[in-house]
Design goal:
The protein is an alpha+beta fold. Helices cover about 50% and strands about 10% of the residues. The structure holds protoporphyrin IX containing FE. Protoporphyrin IX containing FE binds near residues 137, 313, 378 and 446. This is CYP3031A4.
Length: about 500
């Protein structure tokens, strides 16, 4: 029997354990439900519609290229699952059986080993690396600068950059925030910042862009589920270039770490790298993920993870923010009126103003709800069989939230409309809603949330203090159409960026 037919039979047999779970339509050998994605230009809407039709008790099973995944669209069910200590893995519990560990170890040029860093790690490595990252990103800053000052410096550079634009010429918005957001992240992690035309910044941007594109490419799924394809055809779907990008990114991080080691002052950390190097210096426990060479290897991975998690997500959120301001001019004017009344025009908005700007805050919440930029969050994997709502999810199943159902489903009544007032109470104060979960929920919830919200608030309020965003052609607003990658990015659109007098 050849390898592909053996694999398809194995998948069909494996699916018996999944019989209690509702599933949409025909599940083909090898492809599973993958054809569903080939039939549509709107894969996210397609999965959401299937969820609405086929789900039972908040769950729906899909099989894509051999990987079983349970889609969860009920908030309480998701909350239980993502808080369950046995639903916190990213791969098979035994790293030797984990194809993801095999793939990534190979790409990073190491032997098969448990994955380091935060994104893909699990167990002790994950909890240790995550704990320090959460603490560092919530901290007050580095050296003499607070986190807010670091972001404000970048905002200032960005405002000056936009001021040079010709206001009568419409500008492309998709991509506009990429370099400033990358720059502020590079500043807090590696301690350097660049002018936007610096070739090094452009190079980092290019490498990360390629890296992120490869993560969501079909070849990643194939490499994970059917590694034998790549044993037979090592350069199938351009695999070698994926490996090269991965290795160059890791070696760029290693170079920065080596430079920091030479100039480290343990009493005065300059950035995330220094903070972790100090932890490594203090670690004597050989089993710790911060111990000596293991510590440096984990630092490389953690840095890659911070860039992967923190650059495209935040810049895409800001792109959606401008898109909604162009589509909803009366909302834009109300935010500007609130900023004028509370902050005025003689100083930039600061984080201390945030509690005094409830309408602006409600608009930011509505942008995150409607933009829904990470629509399936990040999958978790069950390490043991899980019983939930009377259904069973076998061990080593991917579990993905359907955030669209939670953030926009029928329970919102007008969930498809952009209406910031839904987050305001009768007296105009903020009325939070637990169903707004752009950063996911539970034990793996985004560790960069505080930092991301600081950036979102400071960039959003500062640009609206200085500029108004108008449609490229009067009366024609951009659509909510998107490209789906690691995040959901609006299709390219232009806006006239008009300075406010
Ligand atoms: C608006 C911006 C952002 C959004 C919408 C966002 C969203 C998310 C989501 C949905 C997850 C998956 C959580 C889970 O597995 O349950 C996640 C994980 C993660 N995010 Fe963010 N994120 C943002 C910004 C950031 C920033 C600024 C950083 C770092 C500087 C960051 C670093 C990470 C990391 C390292 C993880 C993996 C956590 C883990 O596996 O334990 N994110 N993020």
């Amino acid at each position: 029997m050849n390898i592909p037919s053996f694999t398809s039979i194995q998948n069909q047999v494996g699916r018996k354990e999944y019989n209690s779970l509702p599933s949409p339509g025909l599940c083909l050998p090898f492809l599973g439900h993958y054809t569903i994605f080939l039939e549509t230009t709107e894969p996210l809407k397609r999965v959401w519609n299937l969820y609405k039709k086929y789900s039972k008790k908040g769950l729906m099973l899909m099989t894509v290229l051999g990987q079983n995944m349970v889609i969860v669209g009920d908030f309480d069910t998701l909350k239980q699952l993502f808080n369950n200590p046995d639903v916190q893995n990213r791969g098979h519990g035994d790293y030797k059986k984990c194809q993801i560990a095999g793939k990534v170890s190979m790409e990073r040029g190491t032997k098969l080993q448990p994955l380091g860093g935060i994104f893909l790690s699990q167990g002790k490595i994950w909890s240790e690396q995550r704990r320090l990252t959460v603490k560092t990103l919530k901290d007050f800053g580095f050296g003499k600068s607070s986190m807010e000052e670091i972001i404000q410096d970048e905002v200032k550079q960005f405002i000056n950059y936009i001021k040079q634009f010709n206001p009568t010429e419409p500008r492309e918005i998709t991509g506009l925030f990429t370099l400033p957001i990358l720059n502020s992240l590079w500043k807090i992690t590696v301690g350097e910042s660049f002018a936007y035309d610096n070739p090094k910044l452009e190079k980092i941007h290019e490498m990360l862009g390629e890296f992120v594109k490869n993560i969501v490419h079909i070849s990643t799924f194939l490499e994970i589920m059917y590694p034998w394809i790549f044993d037979l055809f090592p350069n199938f779907l351009n695999r070698q270039s994926n490996i090269d990008i991965h290795k160059s990114l890791a070696s760029m991080m290693r170079e920065s770490i080596d430079q920091h080691r030479k100039t480290l002052d343990v009493n005065s950390p300059r950035d995330v790298i220094d903070t972790v190097l100090i932890e490594i210096e203090h670690t004597e426990d050989e089993s710790s993920s911060f111990y000596k060479e293991t510590g440096y290897a984990n630092l490389v991975n953690t840095l890659i993870d911070l860039f992967m998690g923190g650059s495209e997500t935040t810049s895409t959120t800001l792109t959606w923010a401008v898109l909604y301001m162009v589509r909803e001019p009366q909302v834009q004017r109300k935010v500007q009126a609130e900023l004028d009344a509370v902050v005025g025009s003689s100083r930039p908005p600061t984080l201390a103003d945030r509690p005094k700007l409830p309408y602006t805050e409600a608009v930011m919440m509505e942008i995150q709800r409607c933009g829904n930029i990470v629509p399936f969050a990040l999958y978790h994997m069950s390490s043991i069989p899980i019983e939930i709502n009377g259904l069973s999810i076998p061990a080593n199943t991917m579990i993905c939230p359907c955030i669209a159902e939670i953030q926009k489903g029928n329970h919102w009544k007008d969930g498809m409309s952009f209406r910031p007032e839904r987050f305001l109470d009768e007296s105009g104060g903020i009325k939070p809603n637990e169903l707004l979960i752009p950063f996911s929920i539970g034990k793996r919830r985004c560790p960069g949330e505080t930092f991301a919200m600081m950036e979102f608030f400071l960039f959003f309020t500062n640009i609206l203090q200085h500029f108004s965003f108008l449609p490229e052609v009067e009366g024609q607003v951009p659509t909510e159409e998107y490209f789906a990658g690691l995040t959901v990015i609006p299709k390219p659109f232009k806006s006239i960026i008009m300075p406010r007098t």
